[in-house]
């Protein structure tokens, strides 16, 4: 994978370091480390998973001391097993122990997202569907969380409100409950490169939308498997179909086999479990 540029990542890592170091710095390491003491350590997986977030981990150390050597063994997107060394980190003790928690917090969280995404991707292999994340991200972390989804083999839905038009139930309410009116207003405002996606809860709404000229994408919200199959048949390739709601590793395959193009999964970014990764001491 092509990593995100440091220019995007440095503000996040700096904020994490400032939060952790406080006003006095790492007083534990300051008390115990000998002057100029060097450590040789490794980031090691404790669980099976997929790697994501190494650039943030590197910055957590090198922003404290540019002499830290960070050598990647398994780059972002790589599968790991328990005990696998992900990267080696060598340098001044103050920088390595001062940056350890920030590095692990970012890396464990993003590896968790990549690992969960890879699980859904594997579950739906052999179907036409793609796994997408949503805007249900932690404030300030959207770019890196969506990057982790890509590291796990998934794709990204829109990043911001200005990426595309997505007409949801509250927007239809704004248009007086009239799907055709909502679509017409969206088309009048959209530029030629702006896609329009419409959320529908029922097949009747979908029929109304198709009769009103349709959309580029239909978000099929919390539909049953028979409803999804019928919706795909109704759309008949004239637009993309995007299933949302109730998608888990156990249900994803059945949902994908209905013929939908996209599975939108919000929990990949807002409630995913971190991957257990440790920083282990190694002999120099």
Which characteristics define this entry?
284 residues; Aldehyde Oxidoreductase, domain 3; TIM Barrel; 2 domains; 11 helices; 42% helix; elongated
Q: Describe the biggest sheet?
A: 7 strands, parallel
* N to C succession of SSEs: HHEEHEEEHEHEEHHEHEHEHEHE
Shape: elongated
What is the strand tally? 13
* CATH homologous superfamily heading of the largest domain: Aldolase class I
Secondary structure: helix percent: 40-55%
Spatial strand sequence of the major β-sheet = 7-6-12-11-10-9-8
Question: CA-to-CA gap between the ends?
Answer: 30 Å
Low-confidence stretches: none
- Provide a count of the helices: 11
CATH topology of the largest domain, what is it called? Answer: TIM Barrel
* Broad structural category: alpha/beta
Task: Output the CATH class name of the largest domain.
Answer: Alpha Beta
Under the CATH scheme, the architecture of the largest domain is Alpha-Beta Barrel
Number of domains: 2
Taking all residues together, what is the mean pLDDT?
A: 96
Q: Bin the strand percentage.
A: 15-25%
Radius of gyration: 23 Å
Description of the molecule:
With 284 residues, this protein is α/β, with parallel strands linked by helices. The chain has 2 domains: 123 residues, Alpha-Beta Complex (Aldehyde Oxidoreductase, domain 3); 143 residues, Aldolase class I (TIM Barrel, Alpha-Beta Barrel). 42% of the residues lie in helices and 20% in strands. It has 11 helices and 13 strands. Strands 7-6-12-11-10-9-8 form a 7-stranded parallel β-sheet. The protein is elongated and about 75 Å long.
């Amino acid at each position: 994978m092509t990593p995100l540029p440091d220019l995007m990542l440095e503000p996040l890592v700096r904020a994490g370091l400032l939060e952790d170091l406080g006003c006095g710095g790492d007083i534990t390491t300051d008390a115990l480390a000998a002057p100029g003491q060097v450590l040789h350590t490794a980031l090691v997986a404790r669980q099976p998973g997929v790697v994501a977030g190494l650039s943030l981990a590197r910055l957590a150390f090198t922003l404290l001391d540019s002499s830290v050597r960070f050598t990647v063994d398994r780059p972002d997107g790589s599968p790991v097993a328990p005990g696998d060394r992900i990267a080696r980190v060598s340098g001044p003790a103050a920088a390595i122990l001062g940056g350890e928690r920030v590095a692990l917090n970012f890396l464990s969280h993003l590896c968790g997202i990549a690992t969960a995404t890879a699980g859904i991707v594997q579950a739906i292999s052999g179907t036409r569907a793609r796994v997408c994340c949503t805007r249900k991200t932690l404030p300030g972390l959207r770019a890196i969380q969506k990057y982790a989804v890509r590291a796990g083999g998934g794709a990204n839905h829109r990043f911001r409100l200005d990426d595309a038009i997505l007409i949801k139930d509250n927007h239809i309410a704004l248009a007086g409950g009239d799907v055709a009116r909502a679509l017409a207003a969206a088309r009048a405002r959209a530029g030629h490169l702006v896609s329009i996606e419409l959320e529908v809860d029922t097949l009747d709404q979908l029929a109304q939308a198709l009769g009103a000229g349709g959309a580029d994408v239909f978000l099929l919200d919390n539909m049953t498997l028979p409803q999804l199959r019928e919706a795909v048949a109704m759309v008949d390739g004239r637009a993309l179909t995007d299933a949302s709601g109730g998608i888990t590793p156990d249900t994803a395959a059945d949902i994908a086999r209905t013929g939908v193009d996209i599975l939108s999964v919000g929990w990949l970014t807002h409630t995913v479990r971190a991957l257990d990764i440790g920083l282990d001491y190694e002999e120099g």
